[in-house]
Specification:
Largest sheet: 3 strands, mixed
Oligomer: single chain
Strand order of the largest sheet: 1-3-2
Number of helices: 14
Order of helices and strands: HHHHEEEHHHHHHHHHH
Strand content: under 5%
Distance between the termini: 36 Å
Helix content: 55-70%
Length: about 290
């Protein structure tokens, strides 16, 4: 089974001083030199850059995601329907089992949010949240799979973590600049980096990803669905239903996602490459008995 190679994202940061070709070990070495020279402020600055350059581990991904999930649940209540929740988690398992990234530190988990708002969320820890409003926009198991697959797409493409990595470098450089003008030490800068990671991911959940990331998650969803035997065209069906929504287009996913029409137009070539045999009929009774 194929594994996704972890890609280290290089962040190009512009500051008054250009630092190029520095690894985490390089920053740490500069910190050691500064310490020997007796410059505690410089040592702290370079050590913060070293911390920022560290790779986020799968365990880090989980705990950052768990923190964001907890934050999300302060705004939404969980909808208690164990039968439906189990059904959604089985769909999720079917989607990831043959994917390139079937295993996470603590697995993938789907929960239902008790709100009529049309939305879905995911965190780096594998937490997937789908609102009752979003579920009501589906009319088949394949449509449910499309919603879940889109969120899995964000997780497997590491969209939130890419934002964190970039922001870690940005904040590290800000901290470095501040250290030359204030008494901020290494501990304060390290704490800033840790707190900022959770803040960035929370911001991504609340304000959404970039348009290109949403389009990429849709394409990934199509691939996941085809790999599991679901009809990828069900994603288009869901998007068409969303386009027909007459509610507040400035709330829920309408506030954080590109228009359904633009998402559909970006799926054309991907759908052509991922055609599967139509097996939707045998799933009809399962959906009717559980999701309706």
């Amino acid at each position: 089974m194929k594994r996704i190679c972890q890609i280290i994202i290089s962040a190009a940061v512009f500051s008054t001083v250009a630092l190029t070709g520095c690894t985490s070990q390089g920053f740490a070495f500069l910190g050691d030199l500064a310490t020997v020279a007796g410059d505690d402020k410089a040592a702290g600055a370079f050590n913060s850059l070293s911390k920022a350059a560290e790779e986020i581990t799968p365990e880090n991904e989980y705990y950052i995601g768990r923190s964001v999930a907890a934050n999300l649940l302060t705004n939404y209540k969980v909808y208690e329907d164990k039968k439906l929740e189990t059904y959604l988690n089985k769909i999720c398992a079917a989607l990831v089992v043959n994917s390139e990234d079937p295993y996470l530190y603590n697995g993938y988990h789907v929960k239902i949010l008790d709100t009529t708002e049309v939305n879905a969320f995911s965190t780096s820890g594998g937490h997937i949240f789908i609102t009752r409003g979003m579920i009501s926009c589906t009319d088949s198991e394949d449509a449910l799979a499309a919603v879940i697959a889109h969120e899995i797409g964000h997780i497997q493409l590491k969209h939130s973590l890419k934002s964190i990595k970039t922001s870690r470098y940005t904040e590290a450089f800000k901290a470095t600049a501040n250290a030359t003008m204030s008494t901020m030490g290494m501990k304060e800068m390290a704490d800033t980096l840790d707190d900022m990671c959770g803040d960035v991911l929370s911001d991504m959940v609340n304000n959404g990803y970039s348009q290109n990331q949403e389009f990429d998650a849709d394409k990934k969803a199509v691939e996941l669905m085809a790999g599991a035997g679901y009809d990828p065209n069900a994603l288009v069906t869901v998007l068409e239903k969303l386009a027909q929504q007459k509610g507040n287009k400035k709330s829920g996913m309408f506030k954080t996602h590109p228009s359904p029409e633009s998402r559909i137009s970006h799926l054309s070539s991907t759908l052509k490459k991922n055609k599967v045999e139509d097996t939707t009929e045998y799933r009809t009774s399962r959906y009717s008995a559980t999701a309706k």
